[in-house]
Amino acid sequence: MAGEAGGPGEADLVLRGGRVIDPESGLDAVADVAVTGDRVTAVGAGLPPGRAELDAAGQVVTAGFIDLHSHVNGVAGLRLQAMDGVTTALELEAGVTPVAAAYDRAAAQGRPVNYGFATSWALARMEAVAGVSLDGSLATFLANIARPEWQGAATAAQTSALAARLEADLADGALGVGVLAGYAPGADPAEYLRVAGLAAAAGAPAFTHARDLIELVPHGLIDGPEEIVRAAAETGAQMHYCHINSTSLRHIDRVLALVEAAQQAGSRVTTEAYPYGSGMTGIGAAFLSPERLPERGLNPSSLVYAPTGERVADEARLRELRRSDPGGLVIIEQLDEADAGDRELLMRSLAFPGGIVASDAMPLTWTGAEPDPMTWPLPPGAFTHPRTAGTFSRALRLLIAGGQVPLAEAVAKCSLFPARLLQNRVPALRRKGRVQPGADADLVVFDPATISDQATYTQTTRPSTGITHVLVNGTFVVRDTELDPAVLPGRPVRAAPH
Ligand SMILES: [Zn+2]
Known about the structure:
By secondary structure, this protein is α/β, with parallel strands linked by helices.
């Protein structure tokens, strides 16, 4: 069909004259990118006019960011991620179960970016060991996070039951297995190996929140980093080490050396990091009990409770909040971003060769009544970790400014590397993380001179700047730095045709 402006074969859109970066092919040059429908159709200099044209001179044009670690479960938070350049946001570390319920809910609500889920060892364990009923939501994990029953050893029958749950989800298209090992310190290391083994059998990666470091918890059942690399070696599973920054803290060099040695020995171990010194999780987490805070050099006032914004005053208040609202989210002040030495530790986890940028984006906590989820701009009253809105622009800013890694490699950490991690299990990922003919038209256009996070620990939902356009499946979600609240072009990403 010929439109008024041109003939057959004319592209819907040409992004004209940007610095096109496609790390897989090595392309890093001024070029045009043509998009028709939901695909990139051509990449090169001097492409013919399209039905629509956009001048990208002075901007980087590259694949949209693929976030392996997003706990955001609603449109509002995902819009913040889109404004940070994210075009695919996956819940892989915690996971959910049953995954079918999570996919159904996301499809019914609509999503601004592509979405997908791993199955959840923690939730399967809560069901098998503590009788929790499941609904495919992370909220169920948070609501039960503090219950001691699920954090201890399981019987053989319980372990088999939870393994069956994980296998059912994998058969149902789950992208991988999320293993929140650090939240159930009493789980038998043999169970972890069994879970890694079933992931390997399904050709699925496992995503681990590591158990505690032996340096911090000498009486732990096993050193968290050792557990991950051992599972990769013994089972052949593809083991992904989540937020290596926040679980390694000032022991990052020891942990990165262990990972590097495992990689050199041929094990499939990958890592991710986010560029912030503080963490965030449910206040009822095992490792946030008053007795255990000193393991990390923390005290109750290291915690900021999201629902009220209060700094936890003392041990009594911490106990009260853990009892009354165990799933309430707290900022955990760990590394000090004002300290040059601590910033350097963060940069080492971020710049680790082959390491991936992933946000650990969190659901929004509303300090007042929760508004209609479609409301945009975001009304006041939302609180989250700044990583939700700012991880990718902050990581790029730091990596570029420090000259730590070339721009093409910094971009690969946000798109190509996560696509490659998943693409054996999820063939659809072969079309993402690339700017090539036939690739999905998930694209980000940003100004490398000005790209920056704006969210802070007090202004937690300020969108990033310097990100000019974001397309998801060929549809502008962000255009000329403005989010379009009328569109929800995100699609499910699944391991197999469904
Ligand atoms: Zn985690």
